[in-house]
UniProtKB/TrEMBL annotation:
<dbReference type="InterPro" id="IPR018042">
    <property type="entry name" value="Aspartate_kinase_CS"/>
</dbReference>
<dbReference type="InterPro" id="IPR054352">
    <property type="entry name" value="ACT_Aspartokinase"/>
</dbReference>
<dbReference type="Pfam" id="PF00696">
    <property type="entry name" value="AA_kinase"/>
</dbReference>
<dbReference type="GO" id="GO:0009090">
    <property type="term" value="P:homoserine biosynthetic process"/>
</dbReference>
<keyword id="KW-0547">Nucleotide-binding</keyword>
<keyword id="KW-0808">Transferase</keyword>
<dbReference type="InterPro" id="IPR001048">
    <property type="entry name" value="Asp/Glu/Uridylate_kinase"/>
</dbReference>
<dbReference type="GO" id="GO:0019877">
    <property type="term" value="P:diaminopimelate biosynthetic process"/>
</dbReference>
<keyword id="KW-0067">ATP-binding</keyword>
<keyword id="KW-0418">Kinase</keyword>
<protein>
    <recommendedName>
        <fullName>Aspartokinase</fullName>
        <ecNumber>2.7.2.4</ecNumber>
    </recommendedName>
</protein>
<dbReference type="InterPro" id="IPR036393">
    <property type="entry name" value="AceGlu_kinase-like_sf"/>
</dbReference>
<dbReference type="GO" id="GO:0004072">
    <property type="term" value="F:aspartate kinase activity"/>
</dbReference>
<dbReference type="GO" id="GO:0005829">
    <property type="term" value="C:cytosol"/>
</dbReference>
<feature type="binding site">
    <location>
        <begin position="174"/>
        <end position="175"/>
    </location>
    <ligand>
        <name>ATP</name>
    </ligand>
</feature>
<keyword id="KW-0220">Diaminopimelate biosynthesis</keyword>
<keyword id="KW-0028">Amino-acid biosynthesis</keyword>
């Protein structure tokens, strides 16, 4: 007997028929002898519809009230799923994030989990029931206000519960058969990866791969929770995300390249003619940090000797572009730059693999593939297991396909399938 935490995304519970199909899978796992805890997202596009509804009422809804509104989506799906499981003759009980003991900080809209006390969930499991938990939500420690965890919050809820319960595995069910070497919607010949390390998955998630969110993988690595990414639309074995070094039967050496990720959600800001003196770069990034913006890639050009000035470029989430630009403009007099350039038509491509650190020539092959495809590179960033480049957004798909082929990642088998059309 194993304790399994399963998470089902919105595309997996999009309508009544989908909920019945998921309920059947859960009931089969329970009847096979396993204890099952399920975390569920809101049905289909429910969260987006609730956001649209709030904005029809007011352009600036209070964050506290938005959190209460948005948690309704998961509560609907959790109760319907519990009903469907009960209809199959298996006892099921549904719980909100608060009832499940998910304690968060007080940042509405993007709260972080600080503790999980799943006593009620454990009681339900001990009594032989399937526990259904609403993902994406928690409650503050001191005020008991409802909070939401932001994008990918249900994945994070599932891994956090798995860690707190000491589960054997956390199964993340989505609408693809696992983690692929590239987005199968762009590269239909992408190969499914059978096993990937936490570090590689962290880099892929941070670089734009949508199948798992960064916070979920960080939590899994911190607490050693094995994550199995599977499709709720098939019975295929998916991708196991784990610490390969501690797993029996792990390969002696990892493949050179795990995959190619891409991201269209970033923008680039170039600060023109910054005085090239100590302290100016620090002041720039203090201002940006003060506006609550996280940066990704940073490049400073060589200063022009005649002027003693330089340009500094960085990428950031496009949704934070207005805040960063406004903050820098406000502090232009004391920083002393000439102008700002904002560009939201960029794309980021990342090549990821734990094996590349011990194999020379990876960068040369990457840049040769992009050159042959006519792709111009605007920025470059590297880590021990990742190389990222910024290109034009309209060239990104071609760049992904070119690099994927250059590193011989294309599958000779059937093309990858995205069952629900979203990749999540």
């Amino acid at each position: 007997m194993a304790l399994i935490v399963q998470k089902y995304g919105g595309s997996s519970v999009a309508d009544a028929d989908s909920i019945k199909r998921v309920a059947k899978r859960i009931a089969e796992a329970k009847r096979a002898g396993d204890d099952v805890v399920v975390v569920v997202s809101a049905m289909g596009d429910t969260t987006d519809e609730l956001i649209d509804l709030a904005q029809q009422v007011t352009p600036l809804p209070p964050q506290r009230e938005m959190d209460i509104l948005l948690t309704a989506g998961e509560r609907i799906s959790m109760s319907l799923l519990a009903m469907a499981i009960s209809n199959l003759g298996v006892e099921a009980q549904s719980f909100t994030g608060q009832q499940a003991g998910v304690i968060t900080d007080s940042v509405h809209g993007k709260a972080r989990i600080i503790d999980v006390s799943p006593s009620r969930i454990q009681q339900a499991v001990d009594a032989g029931a399937v526990a259904i938990v609403a993902g994406f939500q928690g409650v503050t420690q001191h005020t008991n206000d409802v909070t939401t965890l932001g994008r990918g919050g249900s994945d994070t809820t599932a891994v956090a519960l798995a860690a707190a319960l000491g589960a054997d595995v956390c199964e993340i069910y989505t609408d693809v058969d696992g983690v692929f070497t590239a987005d199968p919607r762009i590269v239909p010949s992408a190969r499914k990866i059978d096993r990937i390390t936490y570090d590689e998955m962290l880099e892929m998630a941070a670089s734009g791969a949508k199948v798992l969110v960064l916070r979920c993988v960080e939590y899994a690595r911190r607490y050693g929770v094995p994550v199995h990414v599977r499709s709720s639309f098939s019975t295929h074995t998916g991708t196991l995300v784990t610490d390969a070094a501690t797993e029996e039967g792990a390969p002696m050496e990892q493949p050179i390249i795990a995959g190619v990720a891409h991201d269209r959600s970033e923008a680039k800001i170039t600060i023109v003619d910054v005085p090239d003196v100590p302290g100016k770069a620090a002041r720039i990034f203090e201002v940006v940090a003060g506006s609550g913006v996280n940066l990704d890639m940073i490049v400073q050009n060589v200063s022009v000797a005649a002027t003693g000035r330089t340009d500094i470029s960085f990428t950031l989430p496009a949704t934070d572009g207005a805040a960063a630009t406004a903050a820098l403009t406000e502090h232009q007099p004391d920083i002393g730059f000439t102008s700002l350039q904002y560009d939201d038509t960029i794309g980021k491509l990342s090549l990821i693999g734990a094996g590349m650190k011990s194999h020379p020539g990876v960068s040369a092959r990457l840049f040769a593939a992009l050159s042959e495809a006519g792709i111009n590179i605007e920025m470059i960033s590297t880590s021990e297991i990742r190389i990222s480049v910024v290109t034009r957004a309209d060239q990104l798909d071609d760049a992904v396909r070119a690099v994927h082929t250059a590193f011989e990642l294309d599958s000779a088998d059937d093309q990858a399938v995205v069952y629900g059309g979203t990749g999540r």
